[in-house]
Amino acid sequence: MMRNSWILIGLLFICISCGKAPFYEKAISFKGKEWTRDLKPSFKVEIEDIDQAYDFTLSLRTTTDYKYSNLWVFLKTEAPDGTSAREPFEIVLANPDGSWIGNKSGTIVETPLYFKKRKLPLKGMYKFTVEQGITNSEVNEVLDISFIVEKAIN
User: Fold this and answer.
1) Is the Cβ–Cβ distance between 149 and 94 less than 8 Å?
2) CA distance 121 to 114
3) Which of 1, 123, 106 is nearest to 51 (CA)?
4) Which position has the higher pLDDT, 93 or 4?
């Protein structure tokens, strides 16, 4: 009986730990926890199925010493045919009372920006470039930024 319980627990653990892997995932760390204006992380994603919708997540990790409640970024998207678009987005990091919105673990806060069920019009290589959009030449207490692409569930 005890042996069967351990087997059942082991199988349950395996099933829970086997999640769906993202279609694409990459993180770029900032040296010295400083994102300078001239550093523009880019992510290249090959899209073959234009009938498939994708969920995109841009995730920012800061320390709890980050002194602002938000961060403006520009997301530039370059399509396989060379056309591009550049859009501003606000990543809201804290509530008006100063409490963190993202997932906090110790002194690290991870805040995602979601783009759900997006279809891309062309097959080929897309390049996504992120620029920090504040008036200072650098943003301090920023650890890294990641870009995740998953196939959307219809």
Assistant:
1) no
2) 19
3) 123
4) 93
